[in-house]
Design goal:
2 copies of one chain form a homodimer. Chain A is α+β, with helices and mostly antiparallel strands. Chain A is 14% helix and 28% strand. The first copy, chain A, has 8 helices and 28 strands.
Chain lengths: 413, 413
C-alpha cells in the first residue's frame, strides 16, 4: 500500500441520477423501445427521440434503418444537413410519440465496425508502461515520438455499453516462467476515446491531417479491456492478440464531431516536429473523462493530455495507401495524464498491482468478477458549460466454467 | 553473393499454360463474364461454371448472389449438400451455356472478410527471422512453443489475386537511426495459406481443435505482403501495422476442405505437448506451394512443415471466448521449411537482403516495381495424383507520386 503518487480512489461517488444530454449535442444511437423494433434515435435530456420521422426525404432514409451505417456513408455534407434538420425540428420541443426514456429502452451497437485499430498515443501512458515493464531502459520505444504506434484489434468483439464482459481464459507466465492456463488474473480497463469513420477513402489516397472531419463522423467512449497476464505472455514479437480480443466496449451514443465546436484545443507540443504526413498536427480535444469502478471514481483522465491527435492517427493509418471504410473505428489508446489521478488504467493506477487503490473497503489491484467499470466524459460547451457525452459501462462476469480446458501447467496436457 | 544455403532461383520457369482444376476439386469463386453481371461459380479444368443453375431450391439461393457469404454462413451440412449436388450435376459434363474460360472472365474477392488474423506458425520461418534479427539470442520467443503467435491484420485491404499492389510509403530507420520517410525499400512477399471461416461461433464458446471442419469452409492461397523496413521501425511494442496493412492478396478460388480428403497428414511433433485447448493437435495438410517471381520459381514451401495446425490456430483464436463470424480469415504465417529452397519469403531467401538470388540476370534482394509474384499450390489427390489448387498473383506497381509528403528526414517537416 505504499505508493507514489497517491491514489485518489474512493473519494468521489458517481452521479446519483443519470446525467442529461444537452440540447445541442444530439448524439446518435440505435434503440429498441419496449415491444418495438430497433430504430435510430438521438439523445436529448434523458430521452431518446426517434430520428427518421423528424426528417424529410431523402435524408429520412439515412436514419430509417437499424444502424447509423447509411448516414455514416453519406458523408460530411449529409451529416451537416441532417444535424441541422434535427436541431431545427427539436428546437421547440419533441413532437408527440417519438420520445422514450433512455432508461426504458434497449441500446444497441450503433454502427457496423469495419476495421478496428487501437493506438497508444498518450505519452504519459506509454511512459508509465515503459517504466513498469522496462525499469532499466528508456521508457519510450525509439519510434514513439516519430509515429503514432498502434495495432489492429478485433472488430468482431466490439460490443455496446451494457454488454457483460466475461473474464477470459488464457495462457500466462507461471511462477517459474512456465506457462499456466486458466482465467485471467490481471483484468484491466483502459479508458479511451474511439473515432468512427463515416466517409471512406480509396486505396492509394492518404488522408491529410487537415481532412479529419471529412472522414470522421464522431466519437464514442471506449473501454479497451485488457487481460494483462495473457497479453504479457503472448505479445512478443507480434503484439497483443487474445489479451485484447475478448471484448472492446463502446458507448451506445456516437457524438458527432460537429457538436464539439467548443472542445477543440491546440495539440500537444511535439518534439521532434512531426514528419510531413503527420503535419500539421491538427487539433486536440478537451474532453474530461471519468472512470468509476462500482460507482467510485478512480481516475479523471484529460484527453487534452494526449500526444498524437486524432487527425494524426487517421493520417498515419492511411499513409501507406490503405483505404478507409465506413465503420472503421480507431481508438486513441489509454488516456493518461501527468498526475496519478489522471491515469487511465489499473496497470498505471496500481503500478502493475503493487500499489492497490482502496475501494469500498477492499484493495483494488485488478478487476474482480462483478466489478462494474464506467467511463464517462464531458466536453466544453457554449458559455462555459460542460456537455455530457455519455458513458461506456460494463460489468465483469466470471470466466466461463465450460472452457475446454482446466487450469493446468503447460506441457502436461 | 555468398550464401548459405544456396538459392534455387532461376532454375524453374513457371508453367507455360494455365494449369487445370481437377474434376473433384470444384473450388468456389466469384466471376463476371464479359458484359455480364457478377455471379458465383466453380472452377473445372480451365473453365468456370456458373453454380446456382446447377442446384435446386433452396440451395440454389445460397449461390445466387455475388459472394459466397450465404453459402459460408449456411454451415457444414449445407456445404456437403451443395458440393454433392454440384459434383453430381457436373459428373457427365457441363450443361450448355454455363461455362466460361477462366482466362476470359474477371475474378473477384469471393467472400466478405470479417476479421483477419495472421499467424506465425512455421518454426523454420520464426527461427530464421529470429536468427536474422536477434543473432545473439535464442531465435524463438519464449512463448512460441506454447501458443500460436499471431496478430490482427487489416480486413479492409485483403484484395483478390490480380489486383496490383502499390509499393507503400512509410517511415523507416535511416542510416543514423533517425527516421526517413519515403517509399518502402524492402518490399517482400510471404507465402501463406489462409483459412476461411464459414460457420461462426457465439461469444464464450471456444472452438475445439476437433471441430475445425465444422467452422472452416475452405482455404485460399495468401500473400502477406510485407514492407520490411516500415514494419521494422514501427513494430515495437505493439506489432506490425502499416508494414502489413497496405495489401494482403488472396486467391480468387476458395478450395473447400471437403475436397482435400487425401491431403491430411499427421501434425508436426510438438514438444512440449500442447496445452489442453490446443489438444489434440488436429491434422497437418500436405500442400506443396510454389513461389515464382516473374515466372521463375524461387521457393517450394511445404505446408506439412508447419508447426501449429489450422485446428490449433482456430482453437487458440477462440480460447478467450472470442466469437467467430462468417468471413473470418486466418493466415498460417509464412510457410517455410528446413531447406533454403523451402523458405517462404525474401527476408529468409536472401537473408535480409545480404545474399541475393539470381533472377533473370539481376540480383533479387527485395521486390522491385513491376515484379510479379505468383504463389501456387497443389495437394495430394486420389491415386497418387496432385490437385492444382490455384494461385495468388499480383504485380508491384510504383509508389504513388502524389503522397502528401516527399522523402525527407524526420523532424524536418
Amino acid at each position: 500500500m505504499t505508493g507514489i503518487p497517491p491514489p485518489v480512489a474512493g473519494v468521489s461517488p458517481g452521479p446519483a441520477s443519470p446525467p442529461s444530454f444537452p440540447p445541442g449535442l444530439l448524439p446518435y444511437g440505435v434503440f429498441r423501445p419496449p415491444g418495438g423494433r430497433p430504430r435510430v434515435g438521438v439523445a436529448l435530456g434523458r430521452e431518446v427521440v426517434e430520428a427518421a420521422p423528424l426528417l424529410a426525404a431523402p435524408d429520412a432514409a439515412l436514419l430509417a434503418g437499424v444502424t447509423l451505417d447509411p448516414l455514416l456513408a453519406a458523408g460530411p455534407a449529409a451529416w451537416a444537413r441532417v444535424r441541422a434538420a434535427l436541431l431545427a425540428a427539436l428546437a421547440d420541443g419533441v413532437p408527440g410519440g417519438l420520445a422514450h426514456p433512455i432508461a426504458e429502452v434497449q441500446l444497441g451497437l450503433a454502427f457496423t465496425v469495419a476495421d478496428y485499430v487501437d493506438f497508444y498515443s498518450s505519452e504519459h501512458h506509454a511512459t508509465n508502461v515503459g517504466r513498469i515493464f522496462r525499469p532499466d531502459g528508456p521508457p519510450l520505444s525509439p519510434n514513439w515520438k516519430h509515429l503514432p504506434v498502434g495495432y489492429h484489434g478485433r472488430a468482431g468483439t466490439v460490443v455496446v455499453s451494457g454488454t457483460p464482459v466475461a473474464r477470459p481464459h488464457g495462457l500466462r507466465a507461471g511462477p517459474d516462467h512456465s506457462p499456466v492456463s486458466g482465467p485471467c488474473a490481471r483484468l484491466d480497463f483502459e479508458a479511451e476515446v474511439g473515432f468512427v469513420v463515416g466517409a471512406g477513402s480509396p486505396a492509394g489516397s492518404p488522408v491529410r491531417t487537415a481532412d479529419l472531419d471529412r472522414h470522421v463522423f464522431g466519437l464514442v467512449l471506449l473501454n479497451d479491456w485488457s487481460a494483462r497476464d495473457i497479453q504479457s505472455f503472448e505479445t512478443v514479437p507480434l503484439g497483443p492478440l487474445l489479451g485484447k480480443s475478448f471484448a472492446t466496449s463502446v458507448s451506445a451514443w456516437v457524438v458527432p464531431l460537429a457538436a464539439l465546436e467548443h472542445a477543440w484545443v491546440p495539440p500537444a507540443d511535439q518534439q521532434p516536429a512531426p514528419i510531413a504526413h503527420l503535419s500539421p498536427a491538427g487539433r486536440g480535444l478537451d474532453l474530461s473523462l471519468e472512470v468509476a469502478v462500482n460507482g467510485s471514481v478512480v481516475s479523471r483522465p484529460c484527453f487534452a493530455d494526449m500526444y498524437w491527435t486524432p487527425a494524426q492517427q487517421l493520417a498515419h493509418l492511411t499513409s501507406n495507401g490503405s483505404p478507409l471504410r465506413t465503420g472503421d473505428l480507431f481508438g486513441s489508446g489509454t488516456v493518461s495524464g501527468p498526475g496519478a489521478e489522471r491515469r487511465g488504467c489499473l496497470l498505471e493506477l496500481t503500478w502493475n498491482g503493487t500499489e492497490p487503490l482502496r475501494l469500498d473497503g477492499r484493495e483494488l489491484r485488478w478487476l474482480e468478477d462483478g466489478d462494474t467499470v464506467t467511463i464517462s466524459a464531458t466536453a466544453p460547451g457554449p458559455d462555459g458549460t460542460r456537455l455530457w457525452l455519455g458513458a461506456v459501462e460494463a460489468t465483469v462476469t466470471p470466466a466461463a466454467a465450460d472452457q475446454p480446458y482446466a487450469a493446468q501447467r503447460g506441457g502436461s496436457a
